Amino acid sequence: MATYQITTTVLGVLFAAVILYLIRGDRLYLRLGLFWFALAMLAVLLGVWPRMLDQVADQLGIRYSPTLLLVCAVAVLFIKALHADMVNTRIERQVRRLNQSLALLHIKSQQAASEKS
Prior knowledge:
Keywords: Membrane, Transmembrane, Transmembrane helix. Pfam families: DUF2304. The protein has 117 residues and is mostly helical. It has one domain (3-116). It is built from 4 helices and no strands. The chain has helices spanning 3-24, 30-48, 51-60, 65-116. Helix 1 packs antiparallel against helix 2 and helix 3 (51-60) packs across helix 4. It starts with a helix and ends with a helix. The mean pLDDT is 94.
């Protein structure tokens, strides 16, 4: 096994171990952790069988196989950023609604207190 294969495999295994540690310590949601764990396993696969990337690139008509890896990485980053923005928008909407509900409850409690007086 070539040095770059060993390095890629070891980095993938270490990355997977860190992801599992973060999930176990409740520092990373399971759903998000599964995404990162899958990427770590892909790194391990490409480390063990680097010709797999060459074969997929040949099937797609890509002459320089690292280009496929870079295009896929950019696509995954775009999708991940879009997903993060969607989650952020949902959370901001929920916070805004909670603030409005809290303000209404505060007004009602002030009205009830002033009616008792």
